[in-house]
């Protein structure tokens, strides 16, 4: 009863190997206890579980689990309960079977499960001991994150085995090999140069059985962008001093640096002398940068754009200015001036689609003569780019206008509101004044009345 | 239900993580022989001490790190555990503390930003459960996000708990003779906690203000590889 794992390269969500839940035992092959399962062509698909683990089911807990991991079943803590144990166990097994036949490591598992790591470790060891995980897997481990990083690319490279990309560690002295190492394929040993010279290896091996492996060779033949950038910076600073350049570029020897620099597309600039050629290249590059700006990705592959992406030396906030600065520095002031003039005139020409100015623009004529078809294409793209930019600018302006209008309206409303409040204040103040006046008149009246009353009283008294 | 009028003075509690499981957040950042190992996970302090070395050995073996890392990892874990245990004997005042917990973390390609209120008094709270539910509800596919969220919550709770221990010590030292209301004020010493009385008085409403709505909402972003690279480069620059 082999449980055929249909290719789990699909979603990886629900495990394809769901044994029918009505069965008491999971439908897995019962291989003999100790021997390895026969390596068949369907090895990738079938998961073998030893016969002494036949008790395993996804939904149940067996006695041996309770005995081996009592902490989950003695109800001492509220969250370490059987349900939590099943969550851990099932996730670990699921994760292993998703990646089968690769061996799953404890660290992979504990990084993906929400729990304290010691509980995970206990369940993991338990499952490994009982052969429910890592039973018959090959030993090629998953490539590690920092391995891939040290090789230069994050995720675009296909994962290689750890042996190739990991830093070489000497079997003899357990240190990292830097320059060269000696590999003995027979016994699978790697020794650093020091250990090899000292004879720091096993007795039975002959020194002739070692092969010298230059680490600079086996490091990537392709230069990453970071390294190329470092190379450019170093060359700018140190010029011909390749020793210093090599130290600036991490991980490359002098020879490598020189060869790479020569291979770079604009390395030719140092070879060619003529002004027109330089300005032509500068012109192309500025056009190319315009293409970049417009997002015309069709030209991505061409060398001018590649050059630009590799050399942001100056202030990176405006990449085009940075490239222009770098190129002008390389090419010299006269040439840069000529190139800039040429570029500006070309841009204005393309923009208004006026006739090409023959006066005072010999460079552009040269450029036209040299590569006619390419330039008209890029002119067209340049024009498209310009119009797109203008449209966007207009849109942005319109949006800003609207925003300003809304804000003004808001302010106006607030002013109106305040004016109303002000009026109210005035009115109530007037009312207050009136009431005060009334009160005052009342007081006066009372005063006069009392005086009158008193006077009449006096008169009456006098009379009587 | 407690009467709203009381400012919620509780007697001092023995220090522990204010969660159902008394788990410690452990952070590792070890550099040796040109390699850097960064990690973060939760540990149960009641586990026997030999577990530390076992874990260190297994991790080094799994990640193929040089064996010098074993002792360093073990030492780092041990020191963080003993820090935690040093706090354990002491008192802390919790009071009526509802604190905002902020999440702002990036795990591989997933970026999570969130803010929510957590009751520090509820000793049955479970950050792990919260993390699991959050990931399930938001449909997060990367399984490494859950533990990172739980860890972030735990770390913040741990920090606040240690702060309350420190403030409890201070208040005890400075006002040895007085009792009563001062303890209540000590419990509100940290500016983070919200006064429940003010929050639920008749003047303000229980419904959250509109300007706060955006802040208290979880946001999950999936980044492309280039964005991840850019962020990592920036982080490394900051670290230096």
| Strand order across the largest sheet of chain B | 5-6-7
Output the radius of gyration of chain A: 42 Å
Structural class of chain B: alpha+beta
Percentage of residues in DSSP E strands of chain B:
15-25%
Mean pLDDT across the residues of chain A is 70
The oligomeric state of the chains shown is: heterodimer
Low-confidence stretches of chain B: 1-9, 180-192
Low-confidence stretches of chain A: 1-43, 139-166, 271-279, 290-312
Shape of chain B from CA axes? globular
Largest sheet of chain B: 3 strands, antiparallel
Total helical elements of chain A: 17
Radius of gyration of chain B: 21 Å
SS elements, strand count of chain A: 5
Question: What's the end-to-end separation of chain A, in Å?
Answer: 141 Å
**What is the average of the pLDDT values of chain B?**
77
Structural class label of chain A: mainly alpha
Q: What's a quick, concise take on this entry?
A:
With 464 residues, chain A is mainly alpha-helical. Chain A has helices spanning 63-68, 82-98, 106-112, 117-129, 145-150, 162-165, 193-198, 215-218, 225-238, 242-248, 254-263, 275-294, 303-310, 319-331, 333-352, 362-370, 372-463; strands at 29-31, 48-50, 180-184, 189-192, 211-214. In chain A, the strands form 2 sheets. Chain A has a 3-stranded antiparallel β-sheet. In chain A, strands 1-2 form a two-stranded parallel sheet.
């Amino acid at each position: 009863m082999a449980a055929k794992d249909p290719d789990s390269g699909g979603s990886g969500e629900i495990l394809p190997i769901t044994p029918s839940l009505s069965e008491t035992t999971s439908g897995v092959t019962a291989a003999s206890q100790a021997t390895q399962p026969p390596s068949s062509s369907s090895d990738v698909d079938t998961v073998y579980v030893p016969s002494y683990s036949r008790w395993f089911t996804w939904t149940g807990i067996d006695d041996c689990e309770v005995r081996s991991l009592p902490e989950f079943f003695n109800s001492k803590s509220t969250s370490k309960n059987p349900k939590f144990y099943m969550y851990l166990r099932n996730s670990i097994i699921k994760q292993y079977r998703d990646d089968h036949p690769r061996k799953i490591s404890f660290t992979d598992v504990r990084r993906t499960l929400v729990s304290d790591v010691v509980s995970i470790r206990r369940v993991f060891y338990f499952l490994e001991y009982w052969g429910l995980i890592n039973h018959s897997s090959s030993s090629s481990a998953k490539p590690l994150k920092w391995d891939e990083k040290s090789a230069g690319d994050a995720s675009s490279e296909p994962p290689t085995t750890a042996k190739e990309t990991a830093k070489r560690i000497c079997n003899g002295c357990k240190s990292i090999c830097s320059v060269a190492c000696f590999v003995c394929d027979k016994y699978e040993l790697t020794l650093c140069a020091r250990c090899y010279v000292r004879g720091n290896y096993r007795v039975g091996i002959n020194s002739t059985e070692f092969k010298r492996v230059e680490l600079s060779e086996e490091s990537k033949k392709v230069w990453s962008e970071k390294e190329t950038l470092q190379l450019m910076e170093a060359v700018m600073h140190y010029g011909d001093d390749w020793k210093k350049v090599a130290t600036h570029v991490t991980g490359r020897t002098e020879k490598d640096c020189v060869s790479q620099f020569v291979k770079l597309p604009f390395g030719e600039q140092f070879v060619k002398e003529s002004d027109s050629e330089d300005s032509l290249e500068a012109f192309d590059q500025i056009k190319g940068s315009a293409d970049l700006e417009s997002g015309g990705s069709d030209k991505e592959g061409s060398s001018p754009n590649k050059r630009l992406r590799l050399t942001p030396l100056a202030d990176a906030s405006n990449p085009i200015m940075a490239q222009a600065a770098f190129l002008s520095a390389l090419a010299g002031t006269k040439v840069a001036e000529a190139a800039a003039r040429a570029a500006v005139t070309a841009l204005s020409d393309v923009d208004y689609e006026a006739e090409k100015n023959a006066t005072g623009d010999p460079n552009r004529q040269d450029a036209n003569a040299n590569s006619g078809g390419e330039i008209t294409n890029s002119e067209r793209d340049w024009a498209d780019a310009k119009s797109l930019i203008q449209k966007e600018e207009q849109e942005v302006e319109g949006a800003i206008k609207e925003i300003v209008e809304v804000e003004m309206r808001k302010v106006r409303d607030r002013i109106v509101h305040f004016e109303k409040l002000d009026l109210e204040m005035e009115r109530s103040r007037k009312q207050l004044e009136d009431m005060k006046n009334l009160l005052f008149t009342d007081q006066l009246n009372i005063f006069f009345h009392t005086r009158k009353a008193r006077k009449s009283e006096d008169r009456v008294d006098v009379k009587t | 239900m407690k009467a709203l009028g009381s400012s919620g003075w509780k007697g001092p509690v023995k220090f522990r993580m204010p969660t159902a499981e008394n788990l410690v957040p452990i952070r590792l950042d070890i550099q040796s022989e040109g390699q850097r190992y960064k990690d973060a996970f939760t540990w149960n302090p009641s586990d026997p001490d030999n577990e530390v070395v076992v874990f260190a050995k297994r991790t080094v073996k799994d990640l193929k790190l040089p064996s010098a890392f074993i002792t360093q990892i073990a030492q780092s874990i041990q020191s963080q555990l003993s820090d935690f245990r040093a706090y354990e004997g002491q008192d802390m005042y919790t009071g009526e503390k509802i604190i905002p917990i902020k999440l702002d973390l990036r795990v591989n390609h997933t970026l999570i930003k969130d803010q929510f209120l957590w009751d520090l008094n509820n000793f049955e709270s479970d950050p792990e459960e919260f993390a699991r539910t959050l990931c399930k509800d938001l449909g997060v596919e990367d399984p490494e996000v859950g533990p990172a969220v739980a860890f972030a919550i735990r770390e913040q709770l741990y920090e606040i708990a240690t702060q309350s221990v420190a403030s409890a010590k201070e208040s005890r030292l400075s006002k040895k003779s007085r009792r009563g209301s001062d303890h209540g004020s000590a419990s509100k010493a940290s500016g983070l906690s919200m006064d429940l009385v003010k929050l639920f008085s008749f003047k303000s409403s229980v419904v959250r203000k509109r300007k706060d709505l955006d802040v208290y909402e979880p946001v999950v972003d999936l980044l492309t590889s280039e964005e991840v690279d850019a962020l990592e480069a920036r982080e490394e620059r900051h670290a230096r």
